[in-house]
Fold:
Amino acid sequence: MNGVFGRLAAGVLAVVLCSCAGVAPRSDDAIVKERAQARWNALVKGDFNAAYGYFSPGSRSVLSATDYASSLRRGFWKSAVVEKVECGSAQSCEVSATIEYEHMGLRTKTPLRESWIRDGSEWWYLKR
Structure:
């Protein structure tokens, strides 16, 4: 009986170790792309507090969540797709997105570029 449990424990340990070894760390551009898309998804949904949560600490120190939300128009953005991220250094990335919005009854798609910076261990949108 002891041999069965030993083999079972060794098998479980092998599965755990193999599954951990198969998880590669995500690249900076993948992390930034995911966070930038999540910020845009929040804007499209009209969740300005969630979008504000992606602002860099420096941006939040000069612009309050209330002032940010009051500067935006709910329902303006119809869609947004983060297309590309280029990280020029370990501390900064440029995001290219296409946003669709409605202005005077017409839907328009336009390219947009935005900056993201690393502060500590996290990536943040840099409001200019």
